[in-house]
Amino acid sequence: MTYEEALAFLNAPKYSETRPGLGPVTELMHRLGDPQDQLKFVHITGTNGKGSTSSFIERALREAGYKTGLYTSPYIERFNERIRICGEDIPDQDLADITEKVKEASLSMLANGMKEPTVFEMVTAVAFIYFARNNCDIVVLEVGMGGRLDATNIIKESEVSVITGIAMDHMEFLGDSISSIAFEKAGIIKENGITVTCPQDGAAMAVIEKTCREKNSRLVLADTSSIKLLSRDLEGQDYCFGGAEIRIGKLGSYQLANSALAYTALQQMRDRWPGLTEEAILRGLKNAKWPGRLELMRKDPVFLIDGAHNPDGVSALVRSLKEMFPGERFLFVTGVLKDKDYSSMIEMTLPLGEKYYTVTPDSPRALRSEDLREYLKSVGAEAEAFDSIEEAGEKAWSQRDYKTVAFGSLYYIGNLRTVLKKHL
Description:
Protein-Tyrosine Phosphatase, Chain A, eight-stranded mixed beta sheet, six-stranded mixed beta sheet, 17 strands, globular, metal ion binding, Folylpolyglutamate_synth_CS, dihydrofolate synthase activity
């Protein structure tokens, strides 16, 4: 199997179904020798901030001298980004070779009258095999959706279970209330383990606390309300938390909370992972990178890209923009999925929007750029629709009179990032 054949197989429409449940992935992993049982994990769920928190924790473990695996989704520019060892994407040939093994196991399930796994289940299997083959010391494992019935939850135990902020998202699968969504996400909490979370909505916190009691998991709260910002510029942020002075290279007020949550989780691991000195943790938080999350592509004039794709994420983005650039207005480049609450997302940005460029994300669920333009005009905004992401990106880059911010969906931010990198 070639790399291109592997991607074609994994992206086949027949495997794209979203189907929460551990039955098929359990059978798949069993047929592949259960490589996940050879590994140790930090397991991370939540609505927003999973990827950033994962990157902070992984980099700190790497700075501590451990061989790290990192499994995240979706990717920004290239599929291989989803599976990394010590910051390096899985090589094309390894992805192809392991995918062929997973394909054989999947087809054997079909031949035995079973359901074939979904693409997320198969990619998760590829990741487990790759990490086990390469003898990773520890894997930072990001949940795809929810937690309780997510394919990553096939693991039997974790060094720590981390739950980022919980908000309304994926309601068709996770439920239409904060408590029901929290119940699904709390499903990653393991018996007699450690759970670290941040301040949550009261209903969400009640569910987390109840689950921890039932599973005898020690609950540790990262009190992000105690964060004291020291300084902030386009190079990063300095703040005090938990008696430590912390520097991060990521922008956005929400990254203070994400890194403080990561710091708290890492502190809980230190007695079992002796390389995790305070110095290693602080270096990891400082050096962690996470493309596409309030990422600075240009300083003058400012051009930022952000993967905010639900109301909670856009609220955090708007708050950060107000803090970083008080009183300023922006050219927004945006594309959204039609099944998202894009009206609420757009409404939050209107007080900051000078004009909007609309694009169509690369997804069958995308709202057409023309339809988004008409919606923006209906709420009083100046908007222009573009036929391609490249065309919108090039025109936005050429605008020197505005600070520019792109947001709305990770399904186009990666394509836009590729376009903009040509100018760097």
